[in-house]
Structure formats: C-alpha cells, structure tokens
Design brief:
The complex is a heterodimer of chains A (282) and B (264).
Chain A (H helix, E strand, L loop, with lengths): L1 H30 L2 E4 L3 E7 L2 H8 L1 H33 L5 H10 L6 H12 L4 H8 L11 H26 L2 H9 L4 H29 L3 H6 L7 H10 L4 H34 L1
Antiparallel strand pairs in A: 1-2
Helix pairs in contact in A: 2-12, 3-7, 3-9, 5-7, 7-9, 8-9, 9-12, 11-12
Chain B lengths: L5 H25 L16 H8 L1 H34 L5 H9 L6 H15 L5 H25 L4 H8 L4 H30 L4 H4 L7 H11 L3 H24 L2 H6 L3
Chain lengths: 282, 264
C-alpha cells in the first residue's frame, strides 16, 4: 500500500525522466554506432565502430580532449587557490558584511553565462579595459581574447561560486573553539591552518573541485564565445559536428565519451574522498 | 574572535572586483552614445536600449523565454513536490534509484542532454516544437525544485500533521491545509530557482530550439558570435536587472543565502 503510493507520487516525474532522459541518452549511445555517409546521412540499420576508431585514431580529437583536460584542470586549481582563502576570509567576517559579500560573490551564479562571457569579451578585447590598463602602465597591448587565457579566466569567474559554496558550508561546521584552543596552546597561525582548519575543510574542497572540473570540462558557451573559431573544446567540437558538419553519429560518439569521462572522473574522485574520510575516522 | 588582516582584506577586495567587473562593464557600455564598445564613453544615452525594443527577434525571444521559464518551472514544481514527499516519507523499493535519477541532470552535461533530446525530437518529428522544449527544460530544472522541497520536507515538524490526522482530516485537506503551507517556502524558492535556471539555460536550448522558438539566451549567443555592438550590452544589462529583481524576490520568499548555500 505504502509502496503503491510511493510509485503513484513519483510516477509523473519518472515517466518524464524515462522518456526525456533515459530514452534519449540510450538513443544517442545507439546513434554513435550507426553508419554515417555525407550523401545519404545516418543509416539507423547499419552499425559500425568507425566513429570510435576515428576519435581514437585522429590526433585532432586528442588535441581537443587534451586541451579540454588542461583548461579544466587549471580552472579547478585556480578556483581552489582563490575560492578556499576567500571562503575562509568570508567566514571570519562579522555580520552583516558576511552575508552581503557572500551574496555578492555567489549571485553572478544566477546571471546568464552568455552575459558573463560577453562581459569578459569587453574587458579582454583589443581595446578593452585590461589592455588599456596594460598600456597605461607602459606595456604593449596583448592579445587576450580568443586565447586559452580568456577561456580560463571566464571559467574561473563562472565556477568560483561552486568552490566557495562547499568550502563555506564545511567552514560553518568548523568549531571556532578548536582554532582558539590550538592558538592558546602556542600553535602558530600557520600551524593552525595546516593542522586544524585545512583537514576539516578538505572534503568541501574536494567536492567543490569535482563540481568545477565536471562543469568546466563540459562548458559550452564560454569557449564558444571567448575561444573563437579555432580554439575548440570538447563541447564546441560536439556542437560543430551536430550543427555545422551534420555528422550526428560522430558528434554522438564524442558526446558519449564526454559523458563517460565525466562520470569516471566523478566516481574516482568520490572514492578518493571516501577513502580520506575512512582514514580520518580510522 | 580573530579578524582578517590587511592582506586578507586586499585579497578579498580583488576577488570581489574580479566577480563584479564583467557585469559592471556590461552595464556601463549599455549606456554608451557611440557605435563601438569602447570604454570610457563620451556621454550617456539610452539609444541602445531603444534599439533593443525595436528588434522584433529579441522581443520574441524574450517572450518565448518568459513563457518557457514560467511553464517549465510550474510543471517541474508540480512533479517535484509529490516526488519529494514520497521520497522523504515512504519506503518503497527503488526509492534511492528514483532520487538519484531525478537529481542526475545536475551531473549530466547539458550539452549531452541537448544532443540526446535533439535526436529524440528528430526521430519523433517534433523538432522545434515549443511544448517539447518546455518538457526538455522541466527535466533539467526539476533537480533544483526537488532539492529545496526535499530540504523543506525533511526539516518539517510532523506533529501538526499527526494532530490533524487524529482529528479526522482527510488526505486532501491534510495536504492543502497543513503540509503545503509548511513546505511552502521550499516550494516557492524552488519554483523561482527553477525559473531563473530555465530563463538562463543556453547549452541545451541551442540544440532543441528553432528560429521560431529561440529563447533569449540562445538569441544572444547567436548574436554575439555574429556581431558585437552596444545593443548586446543593453540586452545584457536588461537581463542583469531582471535577474537582480528576481533574486530580491527570491531573497524575500526563501532567503538567498539558503538557496545558494543550502540550509544554515
């Protein structure tokens, strides 16, 4: 009886997710094995491993995957280096500044990523404010827009809230008395950081890194608008295959690989976090 | 209580500038009287805002986005509330799987969902249909409603419900008069968060919209890849203003820090 009610209440959501999540993902997996010809299109009855062979055999795809990997890794690293101290500084602020600045730093999250990418293109353009500042300081104008630099900067801007949130949450659970006890027992500020604060916020840092890396690796609008035509990341590559080349099966292959890589990274990362927890408890 | 030193405060100031700079620049450029995006500008003008309101394509896209965000947030709330109540209160086989399934759009790249739905809609012959676009959005925003309603339902005191039940209240009146009012902040906050996320969504939408159903972010994305003039800044400034207004409402209804950071 209770089970029946459970299924009735979750039924509408399940129907929608079965039809518009599980089914299309399954169809895309099948599509990635379908034969494709530029003249006749997709042949849904013929299957092949050609697209996977092409992706794994062509250095162009390696280049794009490798670029996506290092850009996401660098973005994650920068988010840790900026987001963790910032969350710590925020947590030491007094009310009302604490919530004012927390909201100021987190609300860009809710503003369209297209708007934020456009803002960065204004700042980093050839006669943008950053180049004007460089020239005012006596330097030569630098090409910033349509370089990996622009993509990384904008990605850090978009992803930083995702790092600040989990670190902030774990800092909230931190007992300030533990810090004070360590200080009163003669530990230096650096030791307190290393031995008291960092171990306790590490799970937050790790889960923040996971979200940032996953979102950066599949980001589309930022590399699309700030990377230009030549600087492809996996997401813009898939977009090109689907909407410019019209080679859907090849695009589906790259999409399947992106999804699998994302899930593998997430699950491995989760394992690491769990092992850390066990170590800390045992 | 230890305080932040000057070094920490300068670092903090730089981070705040970094986070706000692109948004502030967009708003400044939107008021330029010139034809270029250069800053500083020579004066103040509303001509680019006027230009936006003369562009039928942008107005249509804005209209589409509003209807889309409103309908998909409402539908997502209608399916997420019963699902959240079932997940928090009833034990049934497959409950954890369903919970994970309903939250999974958060970790599946929108791009992958976009191409997957493009394929499905093409096979069904409904490419470019506005109704199917709404359903596609419902899938990606349901997790946001679900999370907030789950948090509200878990934290709620059940004794009022038990009292009403023992006094003979029926299921419908129990839900309408006791349960719903108690989880209402979570439901309303979830709806607003879903609305914002649907309104901003670009990656999935770019694959499943047609020129007739184009949403504002998609229109802006396409416009920004083709040409860049101050009108783009004016549209962006309007989007920022609209988002800020929605956020103020969200803050009044549910508390912005609770939405962004989770329960405190």
């Amino acid at each position: 009886m209770k089970a029946l009610r459970g299924y009735l209440l979750t039924g509408p959501a399940f129907a929608l997710f079965a039809g518009l999540l599980i089914l299309p993902l399954g169809l895309t997996l099948v599509l990635s094995f379908n034969v494709f010809d530029y003249n006749t299109g997709v042949d849904a009855d013929a299957y092949t491993l050609d697209h996977y062979a092409e992706v794994f055999g062509d250095s162009y795809f390696y280049e794009v995957f490798f670029r996506t990997l290092w850009i996401s890794a660098l973005t994650t690293l920068l988010c840790v280096l900026i987001g963790v101290p910032e969350a710590y500084i925020l947590s030491r602020m007094k009310a009302p500044w604490r919530s004012v600045f927390l909201i100021l730093i987190l609300t860009p999250l809710l503003i369209s990523v297209v708007v934020r990418a456009f803002g960065w293109s204004l700042l980093l353009g050839a006669d943008g404010l950053v180049n004007q500042a460089i020239q005012a300081l006596g330097g030569n104008p630098v090409k910033l827009l349509y370089t990996p630099f622009a993509v990384v900067i904008a990605l850090v801007h978009v992803m930083l809230p995702f790092m600040v949130i989990p670190v902030w949450t774990s800092l909230q659970r931190l007992d300030p008395l533990a810090e004070q006890a360590a200080l009163s027992l003669g530990a230096s500020q650096a030791t307190v950081m290393r031995k008291v604060v960092l171990p306790q916020i590490l799970p937050g840092v790790l889960s923040g890194s996971l979200i940032v890396f996953g979102l950066a690796a599949s980001s589309f609008a930022i590399p699309g608008l700030l990377g230009g035509r030549r600087l492809k990341m996996v997401a813009t590559l898939i977009y090109d295959q689907y909407l410019a080349e019209l080679n859907w099966p090849l695009g589906a292959t790259v999409a399947v690989l992106l999804l699998v890589l994302n899930l593998v990274v997430m699950l491995t990362w989760n394992r690491i976090i769990e092992r850390r927890y066990k170590k800390a408890l045992g | 209580m230890s305080r932040n030193g000057p070094l920490a405060l300068s670092f903090h100031a730089l981070v705040v500038i970094f986070m706000l700079a692109p948004l502030v620049v967009v708003c400044l450029v939107a008021f330029t009287p010139e034809n270029t995006l250069s800053l500083p500008t020579s004066g103040f003008s509303l001509r680019w805002f006027e230009a936006v309101f003369e562009r039928a394509d942008f107005l249509d896209a804005f209209h589409n986005s509003l209807i889309l965000a409103f309908s998909s947030a409402t539908l997502a709330t209608l399916i997420a509330v019963p699902a959240a109540l079932a997940i928090t209160r009833l034990h049934f086989p497959g409950r954890d799987f369903l919970n994970a399934l309903f939250l999974s759009p958060i970790i599946i790249p929108h791009l992958v969902l976009g191409v997957a739905m493009l394929r499905l809609f093409a096979l069904m012959g409904v490419s470019g249909s506005f109704s199917w676009l709404i359903l596609a959005h419902v899938v990606v925003i349901t997790p946001y409603v679900l999370r907030l309603v789950l948090a509200a339902a878990v934290g709620m005191d059940r004794s009022a419900e038990q009292a009403a039940e023992s006094l003979g209240a029926g299921r419908v009146s129990l839900f309408c008069r006791i349960t719903l009012p108690m989880i209402l902040p979570g439901v309303a906050g979830g709806w607003l968060l879903a609305f914002i996320n649907s309104f901003d969504e670009v990656t999935l939408s770019i694959f499943v919209t047609s020129p007739a159903t184009q949403t504002l972010p998609v229109r802006m994305y396409v416009y920004a890849t083709e040409s860049i003039d101050p009108m783009m800044a004016a549209v962006s400034a309007l989007v920022i203003a609209l988002t800020v207004v929605t956020m103020v409402v969200l803050d009044r209804v549910y508390g912005l820090d609770r939405v962004l950071v989770g329960k405190q």
